[in-house]
Amino acid sequence: MNALAVVGYYEPWYVQIIKAIVIFAVGLQLVPVVLMAERKIMGRMQGRYGPNRVGPYGALQPLADILKLLTKEQFRPATSVGFLFALAPMISILTAVAAFAIIPFGDVQNIFGTPVGLYGVDLSIGPLYVFAFGAIAFYGIMLGGWSSGSKYSFLGAMRGAAQLISYEVAQGLALVGVIITAGTLSLTGIVHAQAGMWYIIPQFFGFIIFLVAGFAETNRAPFDLTEADAELVGGYNTEFGGGKFASYYFAEYLNVLVISGLVATIFLGGWLLPFGLNPPGWVDPFVVLFKMSLVTFLFIWVRATLPRLRYDQLMSFGWKVLLPLATLNTLVTAVLVVVTH
Amino acid sequence: MSETPTHDPNQERLGGATAEPVQTRESTITVNRWVPEGDVVEVQRTPAPGPARGSWRAFRETARGLQTTMLRWFEGTSTIQYPEEKVPVYPRFRGRHKLHRFEDTGLEKCVGCSLCAAACPADCIRVVASENTPENRVSAGERYAAVYEINLSRCIFCGYCEVACPFDAITMGHDYELSDYSREDLIFTKEMLLAEPLERTPLRNEGE
């Protein structure tokens, strides 16, 4: 019988709980930071300052936003389906947090004599777990849009469905090249396999495809068709307000962090440093966070630059460009791996 | 018409369009009649880029867009942080009104003639005149304005009142921060208009 998780060492139960709390706390604190960074950076790129009124340099703006949202009236349209309307934002946030659990922030460290892996869990099916939760996260959008009983929400949800099948195959195939090269599905294993060279170099096309599909997965510009403020008011979250909207918002930015973490782990060498640097173990999480922030910056930069794609353009891009490229990448990698070994 | 072919620039411009005489009631004039074959516009298209060059072009254009946004960052912001930082006004800016006194005698310049009220297109000025007496001398003229009110929620800041005033008693000031919590507070009385205004608005310097 195969174990779901490859632990390989004894980890006491209380360590698991502490790890879960720490990861949840860190993830939760990163979301307002990303939110703030996005508004500031986009402001600068558009010739303005961004929020700078609340607190020093506007640093307390996310707090003010969240307080405002949480103190709002809990409104539900008369045409909505009550149970699903409440459930959908929870699905969104749950899947985002669950996917965050497998991002490795460091190797197994000896903390007070107890070996602790600096990650939620090291699954033997790493990327598959992420894709599974990415697919479930779609239900958050789909049910939210459908249960709102509003045409805009419904259109957003429909676009979400079309978008999902367009990018997800390519996203999965983009990682197959990495998995073939590394010979493992475990994310820590993939990081260890990058010791000589980060996968961004041999798997450059895989990196680009995964990144582009990641933009689509997180519903961000230029693939934010499900929200599409210009034409669909707010897309799937048009009818949501207050805490439910805050959950959707939170999930979106947590998804950005998850994709950044995955890109940092799979293509940018995780906690490894170039030039033979080998710092002590406590530096690892900061290295990963730094790489994540670079990818997140790219997300924000692209959002400030590219206009939203049209619906059919996204479909044809996903099916006619990303999928063949990803397939070709997988084939070439497979042939090269067979030839060289 | 002569038989010798002449160089007609009009003919050349229109390509195959033919010039032919048309008989109208008054005279024979030459019009150019449109011929479909002569008016076909040929569009020079670059060769279709193909997958590799097309991808490269998309990649290059995306990179160019990213460069544009990044350069905009380095360009700096153009925001004016309003309550702390104000746009200076020009000397002839028409802001809140001011009433004036003679500097030597301290008497009001306004003689209560109501010409400003008559000139006001928004009908926002109310003047009630009263006679000056030797004991109570308010203005330099025969009469003075006992009541002088401007309803600034109606005023359109056209400046006709200062044009109409024969004694330069009312002028437009530079103050534009006039919001208040109730409409009653926006009716400015004579005392408020005579008072030295708070210098809240910076004046634009020469050449600024």
Protein described:
Chain A has 341 residues and is mainly α. Helices cover 64% and strands 2% of the residues of chain A. Chain A is built from eleven helices and two strands, in the order αααββαααααααα. Chain A has helices spanning 13-45, 61-70, 82-100, 126-147, 151-182, 187-193, 204-217, 229-232, 242-266, 284-305, 311-340; strands spanning 108-111, 114-117. A two-stranded antiparallel sheet of chain A has the order 1-2. The longest helix of chain A has 33 residues, at 13-45. Chain A starts with 12 loop residues before the first helix and ends with a helix. The mean pLDDT of chain A is 84. Chain B has helices at 9-13, 50-75, 115-119, 160-164, 190-194, and strands spanning 18-23, 28-33, 97-99, 125-131, 143-151, 170-172, 187-188. Among the domains of chain B are: 9-39, no CATH class; 97-194, Alpha-Beta Plaits (2-Layer Sandwich). Chain B is elongated, with a radius of gyration of 35 Å. In chain B, a hairpin with a 4-residue loop joins strand 1 and strand 2 (28-33). With 208 residues, chain B is α+β, with helices and mostly antiparallel strands. In chain B, the strands form three sheets. Chain B has a three-stranded antiparallel sheet with strand order 4-5-7. A two-stranded antiparallel ribbon of chain B has the order 1-2. Chain B is built from five helices and seven strands. Helix content of chain B is 22%, strand content 17%. The interface between A and B is medium-sized, with 14 and 15 residues.
